[in-house]
Design brief:
By secondary structure, the chain is α/β, with parallel strands linked by helices. The chain is about 30% helix and about 20% strand. It has one domain: Rossmann fold, CATH 3.40.50.9100. A five-stranded parallel β-sheet has the order 2-1-3-4-5, sandwiched between helices. The structure holds ligand CA2.
């Protein structure tokens, strides 16, 4: 499968300020773990701090990949533009969060973008991404 993994704002800084919610994992490290876990899939990784760039990437992924994994970062709670792009995109798509959103501040409990995906996974650090790829495989083989 060809899978695109998108990360939103501030996820490029994961290892710059170790945090109780995100651990000390770097984004590069996270990407390496995904590739190592799924040697038979092809991955494209993209991170941006800009809403419009994420929208552009979701638009161009449509038709060019077999699945999409997205951590919209803070935009998860606010972005109608990313939500709309996800609605238009016909790929199987799963939203992921490193931290357990349900255990955090109430302003993070509303996930605007997740309802435009097939589902979402939250709280398992790098394993949220691993689980998402596993589930995309299941969707691809119609076992889900
Ligand atoms: O848990 C997640 O994956 C989040 O999407 C991460 C976002 C946050 O705004 C979402 O509510 C949940 C934040 C990305 C990283 O922010 C940093 C904060 C401190 C140190 C380094 C990065």
């Amino acid at each position: 499968m060809k899978i695109i993994v998108l990360n939103g704002p501030n996820l490029n800084l994961l290892d710059k300020r170790p945090d109780e919610h995100y651990g000390a994992l770097s984004l590069k490290n996270l990407e390496e773990i995904i590739v190592k876990e799924f040697p038979n899939h092809q991955f494209e990784f993209f991170q941006s701090n800009h809403e419009g760039e994420l929208v552009d990437k979701i638009q161009s992924a449509n038709g060019s990949f077999d699945g999409l994994v997205l951590n919209p970062g803070g935009y998860s709670h606010t972005s109608v533009a990313i939500k709309d792009a996800l609605e238009i995109c016909v790929l199987p798509k799963i939203e992921v969060h490193i931290s357990n959103i349900a255990r955090r501040e109430s302003f993070r409990h509303s996930l605007l973008t997740a309802s435009s995906c097939d589902g979402y996974i939250s709280g398992f650090r790098e394993n949220s991404y691993i689980a998402a790829v596993y589930l995309l495989e299941k969707i691809n083989t119609s076992k889900l």
